[in-house]
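Q: Here's a chain of 168 amino acids. Please give me its 3D structure as tokens.
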Amino acid sequence: MDKYSYNKPKLDIPKSALQRLFDVVSIIAFMAGTVYLISVWNQLPDQVPAHYNAAGEVNRWGSKWELVILPIIAVLMAVFFTFLEKHPEWHNYMNLNRNNIEFQYKNSILFLNVIKNECVLLFVYLSFNIAQVALGKAESLGILFLPIFLVIMFGSIAFFIIRSIKHK
């Protein structure tokens, strides 16, 4: 076994232009979503959608203060994933060796960046939709929300796993 299998070196890998673009898009969307929530806060009823079923229909209502949790979770996840992006030597790899280590690190960093930003955008969308339903401007998330979300998330995961396997 190669020494890289157990002792992963720390490499200085800067963010790519694509990663920086994803981050900027998510930050702008997060800020816009937060501004939107603040702007409609006084118009929101005391009870807002708090949970949706698989068909995208509201199946629990809760306090509008529960809406504050979504941006907090998005920020905490973004901070955690950003931290992990900076430490690819801590990630798990299959068949890591000196010939593929840089590619595998870059792949893992990009994977985390994509998942992080997809999650932030998800929380922004959920916050927006909850406000829209509470204000009577929408009825639900819609029947296609869950399938689309799952295809995007699992599609991203599958893409990066396959990409990693191909470069062993």
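Q: Can you summarize the key feature?
A: The first strand starts at residue 47 and ends at 52.
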